[in-house]
Design goal:
The structure holds three protein chains of three kinds.
Chain A (H helix, E strand, L loop, with lengths): L2 H24 L2 E8 H6 L2 H11 L3 E8 L4 H9 L7 E5 L1 H9 L21 H6 L1 E2 L2 E2 L2 E13 H6 L15 H11 L1 E2 L5 E8 L6 H13 L14 H15 L3 E2 L8 H7 L3 E7 L2 H9 L4 E4 L4 H4 L1 E9 L7 H12 L2 H11 L6 H5 L5 H11 L1 E2 L7 H16 L5 H12 L9
Helix pairs in contact in A: 3-14, 8-10, 9-10, 11-12, 18-19
Chain B lengths: L1 H33 L3 H4 L14 H9 L2 H33 L5 H13 L3 H14 L5 H26 L2 H9 L4 H9 L4 H17 L2 H6 L8 H7 L9 H21 L1 H11 L4
Helix pairs in contact in B: 1-13, 3-13, 4-7, 4-10, 4-12, 5-7, 7-10, 8-9, 10-14
Chain C lengths: L1 H39 L1 E2 L9 E2 L3 H7 L2 H33 L5 H9 L6 H11 L6 H9 L13 H30 L2 H9 L4 H12 L1 H16 L3 H6 L11 H10 L4 H25 L6
Antiparallel strand pairs in C: 1-2
Helix pairs in contact in C: 1-13, 2-13, 3-7, 3-10, 5-7, 7-10, 10-13, 12-13
The chains are: A alpha/beta, B mainly alpha, C mainly alpha.
Chain lengths: 424, 279, 297
């Protein structure tokens, strides 16, 4: 190579690197967000991105949509330390704990100061996202398990007070008699309106089960500290369910269709729903908000209930973790975003102030109270397997294949080899 | 006798009509549903024929389902990619196994037969782990590679049989003309096994087009999913099953392939016939 | 010496041609197969374990103490027992129909074989809608067209009907394949035999019993094995339509293997179920081959 050529190529290289670094400076940072596909329909993600870009003009967004209920493979990929996104919204904390166990999650503690300080979040939700004192996820799409009733049906059955509010049943026996009064059967004995519809789909069975236990006995654990599948209350709850189904008081539409119960309510096929509070809004949009009321699970006013939250998580291998944190706090937990979610879907985010501004509405008042007095399910290694066992056994019971006590015995036997030690 | 034959023919014809109707009814039901308004879909009593034809569901697919064209193109890409691997590999190996005797031939054929007897499920987990290591999950290539592997053994068997059928005089005369083995294979023999290649193409296409388990496991996000796994995942949680939109999406997905099937039926039958050795 | 060289070059050509495919199958079939075998003998939680740890037959032993696995096995057997005879009968019957030379067979063929190109998962969506309790066409026809409201069912939600509904979808999808295989067998029967029979004054029924069916022996074996294997590996429509529910009523082997591997992250157990299923499929195929053993095939 001649000297001239060498100089020329050196100059060329220099110029190239200059151009490249300039391009790198101007190139927008891309924030990749991964969530189940429905999440993007439900949340105002585009608007949040637009607003975020006003404050951070150098940021671009990339949406990565995972198939509904197909998140397990995604989580698996992540658990291998693959870069999947800067912000991941796929799982409940009890599922997400696997990532923390592999040290894949970034703690939020450094940004939970000032207006975002820990005491400003709904305790029940934030506790679930806390592992070993550190907050590894922020709540999103959060909900409390509760009963929701149709006031007009209750009024017909004479189950309302002077103001037209549904009377809170004091125990499950009274609730059962309510169901008998709310159920309508035709001349052939076929139910045309169920007293209740319960969400026993695989996504909900464990939540409604433990919400019943929490309300009845103030704990989801037995005296040995293990998840409770042996107490008298557990037996009472399952007996209540089975008898209700057998006598045509409770709908089993959820056994195939996850949306069955809310559709029962929307079409007036059921008077009370046992699922999460958020459906009160969704159903109210169809049948009229004035007809809907949250009814606490018997005992929940004292003992509280179980809550569920999706978790907003930031992987350690995120490309832009600081931006992701900023996006979550500045937009997801902004008042406009939280209110939009509450108004359209009834779902909650964690920051108290966003809910407090809605407390004049009795629905939100009750939800707020329940949420603050709620517990999450324990985070365990074999959580998914336990849920699968519970769901299958409870379904078999609801199909009259086995008695409630057999069901509990089967569950106890099958979860025995599992690792259900809570990870704290 | 003639009246009896006539009667017999009429009965057979009638059975044919009924059978065709039963098979097509589910598809027609979906097509009808796709033209109904949402109110009509969820009305009791149901209507079979749409009271009023509306295009809203199709508009919803175009406007509200940005994933749909992605699924479609992914399916096309994966299918073509798989064929691009399966066809040359099965043609070369089929030529070697069909026209030569060589040490190792028995072992190869034995391996192929053994693979054909093993359900795909066995390969799912190890291939997942391999793709995890190679970082191929969630990419089109991540589906193409296993699909090609799983369809290759059968492709080789078919091509082996096809090459075997060619009379050896043709090959001999090519050799005398001074063609090397590669030229003989490509220019002389392969043009004679086009029907074999067509059969491989068809059964690979059918297998890839409808594969669900691998696609469900390996493809994590919309950007890489195929139709067979993408459409079923569009259901839950988003309000409720949006059957109007879903029916329209189904109709649009199945229409092109149905037309292709009806036109090229002969080749499909041939491909399936040869391809059904595999369980 | 010269001969020896020639022979070697003779080996080199076929090996060069076979090599790409052999390497490919080695990498993507043989290696995975061996590694699958290793995993099935290992304790391997994909999230929590660093690497597979050999634990002998522990996974296989665990399987037979797992009631969910036993149920999945029983359900798979049930599905097969319902699916298989119907599949054979319908395939044969419709193949005979399409083999007649009456007007319209071309159209019938196009219609009856069309499900071949409909992915089973998409058929699952279609049939979920068709079997829906309130808005499904099946219940609608039973109640409002045939006026038999007492026959209405919660097809996918009842333990008694859920599995049978899945069989219907499987049949809808797969009978076309059976027809094609039988048709190829029918086409292979020489016309001369029928001509000879005609001279003897044999009627259509006798034709079927004494000529057609005995000559289809190898087709029966082929279609039979194919059909049974399709039944053993039932998966797609189960995932889409019931995902194993209600309870464990439609949990099948493929589904339970998948769940173990990709929901519970227990790769070892998932792979053990996979090998169990493979063994089942192979045993059944061999058995069928013995029963319908014919000199030709």
């Amino acid at each position: 190579m001649s000297k001239k050529m060498r100089v020329l190529s050196l100059v060329g290289l220099l110029m190239l690197s200059l151009v490249m670094s300039a391009a790198a400076m101007a190139a927008p940072k891309t924030l990749k967000v991964t969530a189940e596909a429905w999440y993007f329909n439900k949340y105002e993600m585009e608007e949040a991105a637009r607003r975020f870009q006003e404050d951070h003009p150098d940021v671009d967004f990339e949406w990565s949509k995972a198939g509904d209920f197909e998140v397990a493979p995604l989580m698996l990929a992540w658990s291998r330390d693959r870069y999947i996104a800067d912000l991941v919204i796929v799982a409940s904390p009890s599922e997400a704990v696997a990532f923390q166990a592999r040290d894949l999650l970034l703690s939020f503690d450094d940004v939970l100061v000032g207006e975002y300080a820990k005491e400003n979040w709904l305790k029940g939700f934030l506790d679930q996202c806390t592992i070993g004192g550190q907050v590894y996820a922020l709540p999103s799409d959060a909900e409390v398990m509760t009963l929701i009733g149709r006031r007009d049906f209750a009024e017909e059955a004479g189950l309302t007070d002077d103001e037209g509010n549904i009377i809170m049943p004091k125990d499950f026996d009274e609730l059962y008699s309510f169901l008998e009064q709310l159920t309508i059967k035709d001349s052939s004995g076929k139910t045309t309106r169920y007293g209740m519809t319960v969400n026993w789909s695989p996504e909900y069975t464990h939540y409604v089960y433990f919400s019943g236990l929490q309300a009845m006995r103030g704990s989801i654990f037995d005296e040995n500290g293990a998840l409770d599948f042996s107490s008298d209350e557990a037996l009472e709850l399952l007996t209540f369910w089975q008898k209700g189904v057998e006598e045509g008081l409770i709908s089993t539409s959820s056994l195939v269709d996850h949306s069955g119960p809310r559709n029962d309510m929307k079409s007036g096929l059921a008077a009370i729903l046992w699922e999460d509070h958020a459906r009160v809004i969704e159903i109210g949009q169809v049948v009229g908000q004035d007809k809907m009321q949250i009814v606490k699970i018997p005992g929940a006013d004292v003992n509280g209930t179980v809550s569920y939250t999706m978790s907003l998580m930031i992987p350690k291998n995120a490309a832009h973790p600081e931006l992701a944190k900023a996006f979550v706090l500045e937009q997801f937990n902004a008042e406009w975003f939280a209110h939009d979610l509450m108004d359209r879907w009834g779902k909650l985010l964690g920051l108290k102030s966003n809910i407090e501004s809605r407390l004049d509405d009795p629905i939100w008042e009750t939800v707020f109270e329940l949420a603050d007095n709620s517990v999450g399910l324990p985070k365990t290694v074999d959580h998914a397997k336990m849920v699968d066992i519970m769901t299958a056994e409870i379904h078999n019971m609801l199909k009259m294949q086995q008695t409630p006590s057999q069901t509990l015995a089967n569950i106890r036997q099958q979860i025995q080899p599992l690792n259900l030690e809570p990870i704290e | 006798m003639p009246t009896k034959t006539k009667y017999f023919r009429f009965v057979v014809f009638l059975i044919g009509v009924v059978a065709s109707f039963v098979v097509l009814a589910p598809i027609f039901w979906i097509i009808f549903t796709s033209f109904k308004s949402v109110e009509e879909i969820y009305s009791i009593p149901l209507t079979i024929w749409p009271r009023q034809f509306v295009w809203t569901n199709y508009i919803a697919v175009i406007k509200g389902l940005p994933e749909f064209p992605i699924y479609f193109f992914n399916t096309v890409k994966v299918t073509l990619g798989t064929l691009l691997l399966v066809l040359p590999l099965s043609a070369t190996a089929g030529y070697a196994l069909g026209r030569f005797d060589f040490p190792g031939k028995k072992a190869i054929n034995l391996f192929i037969i053994a693979i054909l007897a093993i359900p795909y499920l066995v390969f799912l987990i190890p291939l997942y782990i391999v793709e995890d290591i190679l970082n191929l999950l969630d990419t089109n290539l991540g589906l193409i590679l296993p699909y090609a592997a799983l369809n290759l053994p059968l492709g080789i068997l078919i091509m082996q049989a096809s090459y075997k059928e060619i009379p050896s005089e043709l090959e001999d005369s090519a050799r005398i003309d001074g063609a090397n083995p590669f030229q003989t294979w490509l220019m002389v023999l392969t043009p004679l096994v086009i029907t074999g290649l067509a059969a491989v193409t068809i059964f690979t296409f059918v297998a890839v087009w409808e594969e669900y388990m691998f696609a469900r496991t390996f493809m994590l996000s919309t950007s890489a999913q195929t139709l067979s796994v993408g459409l079923p995942s569009l259901r839950v949680e988003s309000k409720s099953w949006a059957y109007g939109t879903l029916s329209a999406a189904l109709t649009v997905s199945l229409l092109p392939i149905s037309v292709v099937f009806v036109v090229l039926r002969k080749y499909f039958i041939e491909g399936v016939m040869r391809g059904s050795i595999k369980g | 010496m010269a001969k020896h060289v020639r022979r070697r070059s003779n080996y080199r050509v076929p090996w060069l041609f076979a090599l790409p495919a052999v390497l490919y199958m080695g990498a993507f079939l043989l290696y995975p197969l061996l590694s699958a075998l290793r995993i099935s003998f290992s304790e391997y939680n994909f999230v929590y374990s660093e690497k597979p740890i050999f634990n002998g037959l522990a996974n296989y032993v665990q399987l037979f103490n797992d009631p969910h696995f036993i149920v999945s096995f029983k359900n798979t057997v049930y599905y097969t027992l319902v699916f298989f005879p119907l599949f054979m009968l319908l395939s044969l019957f419709l193949a005979l129909l399409l083999n007649t030379k009456i007007k319209g067979t071309n159209i019938f063929q196009a219609a009856i074989l069309l499900p071949i190109v409909v992915p089973l998962s998409l058929a699952g969506i279609m049939f979920t809608w068709i079997f829906s309790q309130d808005f499904g066409i099946v219940n609608h026809i039973l109640a409002n067209v045939l006026h038999l409201p007492h026959l209405q069912r919660f097809w996918l939600g009842d333990v008694e009907t859920a599995m049978n509904s899945l069989v219907v979808v499987g049949l809808w999808k797969y009978v076309g394949f059976g027809i094609i295989l039988f048709l190829s067998g029918l086409k292979a029967i020489s016309e001369d035999i029928y001509e000879a029979a005609k001279v003897d004054g044999v009627n259509a029924w006798q034709n079927l019993i004494y000529i057609t069916l005995p000559n289809l022996k190898s087709s029966f074996s082929l279609v039979g094995i194919w059909g049974i294997i399709q039944a053993i590996k039932v998966y797609d429509q189960v995932v889409v339509m019931t995902n194993g529910g209600p309870g464990t009523a439609t949990s099948v082997l493929y589904l339970y293997a998948w769940k173990n591997a990709f929901t519970f992250f227990n790769m070892g157990l998932g792979e053990a179920i996979a090998f169990f299923t493979a063994a089942l499929a192979i045993v059944v195929s061999v058995f069928f081959n013995l029963v319908f053993k014919s000199e030709k095939r």
